Amino acid sequence: MPNPTKNLDLSAIWLFSSCTPRELRTLRGALEEVTVPAGTVLTAQKAAGREFFLIVEGRAAVIHSGRHVATLGPDQYFGELSLLDRGSRSATVEAETEMRLLVLGQRDFNGILEAVPTMTRKLLSVMAGRLRESDARAYH
User: Could you tell me if residue 2 is inside a domain?
Assistant: First the structure.
């Protein structure tokens, strides 16, 4: 089975968009590949989040307040904010099919930030940009 992280462009993920190629390689090296069967609940709404998921193969249903709101597939991701704050999940995500995922846990992510402290400022900058965009949409 080919290595799904080899050509993975993490810079396409908004949270990692300002990282250098070296920082992105470090992130790719921390991703763990897992396979889960259909029906697996990957995140539960309102539960604390501790990992980020990137879908390699398969499909997942996004369920908010008991209602199906989206379907996610290969190259899509979820849970990135949990790397930063361990806040509660905004939705339940359940595997509709067997899935191959790349997972980055908060502990590994925190270790990367300690080893590569320049990433922290970049992530804060990207977060500030997203907040400004959100504010602009809310007020216009």
Answer: no
